[in-house]
Give the backbone structure.
Amino acid sequence: NAGVTQTPKFQVLKTGQSMTLQCAQDMNHNSMYWYRQDPGMGLRLIYYSASEGTTDKGEVPNGYNVSRLNKREFSLRLESAAPSQTSVYFCASSQLGLAGHNEQFFGPGTRLTVL
Amino acid sequence: EDQVTQSPEALRLQEGESSSLNCSYTVSGLRGLFWYRQDPGKGPEFLFTLYSAGEEKEKERLKATLTKKESFLHITAPKPEDSATYLCAVKYNFNKFYFGSGTKLNVKP
């Protein structure tokens, strides 16, 4: 049981390049999330997917797109990378409970540098 | 404006020296407050969920409490292995969470 996996672990891009960050979970969770973490700012929600086939914007969606490929996989795409997108990106998943969605399980993160 | 604030930003303790971390929030319609532990280079790891004022949860040397405006994470007789960044998060609707910027705890032997 791997939990939440992310690829790649590290990536360096040049301004204007594109790339896709991959995320997969094996816990049969309904909801999946993409966050970015910057020093002193905590985790900020980029996009989330409440269930297969649905996606919604979070706090900081500009410059990103997402795809919920199936229940297991949720990818994040940077179409034209900018230095402001240098950050650590975390994928998370959660399962619906009696009080709504419960705790989130996080992947190990992707460290992205845009030059 | 909805906000989650953690204090202090950093805390250095001697082994065995108990203390508390604070998470204050101004989010309306709270649907749960979560505490996570994050080790360097890793993703956050879930510790506790609190849903209503007065609720308390414990795990080993950690105890989380919740009021209408804030939550505390009490650390009793900490050990060096408790060194990490502790994050709190507030669920403010069905699917969205606000995270604080964390408290970096360093426990010296």
